Amino acid sequence: MFRWLSTGGLCVVNYFNVEIHAVRSGAVEDASRGGVDDAVDRMMAQWRIARPDLDPSPFGIVGRVHRLERVFEREMGRFYAEYGLDGPEFDVLAALRRSGREGTLTAGELLRASTVTSGAITNRIDKLARKGLVERTPDPADRRSVIVVLTGPGRALIDDMLDGYFEAERRVIEALPHPDALAAALRTLLVALGDASPPGPPGGL
C-alpha cells in the first residue's frame, strides 16, 4: 500500500513495495523506473540548479499529468479519427449514450458535464447534427431549453466504437503496475479539489 516515512533529510515513500527515496537536496531515486529519466525529471533537475532554494517536487506529479494529457489526446485522437470524429464530438455522443434516458440530454446538461463554454458545446452539437448523429428537439418542460437526442446512426456509431475505445485506453495505461491504486489516488485528489460527482443514480452524468 502507501507509506510515508521521514528520517532527518531522507523521505521514503513505499507504494506497493516500490520505494521512492528523496533527499532534501532534491536527488530522487525511483526503483520502479530502472534508471530511465523522463522529461519531467530533466526539468526538475534544471530547476534545482537554477533555483536551489525552491522545492519543485509537486511538479513531479502536476507536470506529468499535463504531459500525459497531451499523450492521451494524441493516442485517442487517432482512434476517434478512424470513425470520422474528434475527441469533443465523441464526448458528446458518449454522454448521451450513457445518460440512461434513451440518449437524450438538454444542452445545459451537456454543458455541465463538460469544462468548456456554452459556445463550444453549441459548436459540437452543430457539427454532430450536420453529420446526422444527433438532433435537437424542443424541451416540453421548458420552452427556453433544447433537448439533444442521439439519432439511430449516432447510437449505432457510438455503440460500434465502445469496445475499441476502452481497449485503446487500456493500451495507453498498460505500463502501469497498479492502475487501480493510481485511479484511487487520482480520485482522492479530484474530490479534494472540488470535482466530486453530485449525488444521484449512476445513470446520470
In short:
The chain has 205 residues and is an alpha+beta fold.
Question: Which homologous superfamily in CATH is the superfamily of the domain at 87-161?
Answer: Winged helix-like DNA-binding domain superfamily/Winged helix DNA-binding domain
Helix content: 40-55%
What fraction strand?
Answer: 15-25%
| Helix/strand order, N-terminal first | EEEEHHHEHHEEHH
SSE diagram, text form:
Elements lengths: L1 E6 L2 E6 L2 E6 L4 E3 L8 H12 L8 H23 L5 H11 L6 E3 H6 L5 H13 L3 E5 L7 E5 L1 H21 L6 H14 L13
Antiparallel strand pairs: 1-2, 2-3, 3-4, 5-7, 6-7
Helix pairs in contact: 2-6, 3-6
Would you write up a description of this structure?
Pfam families: MarR_2 (PF12802). Keywords: DNA-binding, Transcription, Transcription regulation. GO terms for molecular function: DNA binding; DNA-binding transcription factor activity. Among the domains are: 39-83, no CATH class; 87-161, Winged helix-like DNA-binding domain superfamily/Winged helix DNA-binding domain (Arc Repressor Mutant, subunit A), CATH 1.10.10.10. It has 7 helices and 7 strands; from the N terminus they run ββββαααβααββαα. It has helices spanning 39-50, 59-81, 87-97, 107-112, 118-130, 152-172, 179-192, and strands spanning 2-7, 10-15, 18-23, 28-30, 104-106, 134-138, 146-150. The strands form 2 sheets. Strands 1-2-3-4 form a 4-stranded antiparallel sheet, with no helix packed on it. It has a 3-stranded antiparallel sheet with strand order 5-7-6. Strand 6 (134-138) and strand 7 form a beta hairpin. The radius of gyration is 22 Å and the shape is elongated. The two termini are 31 Å apart.
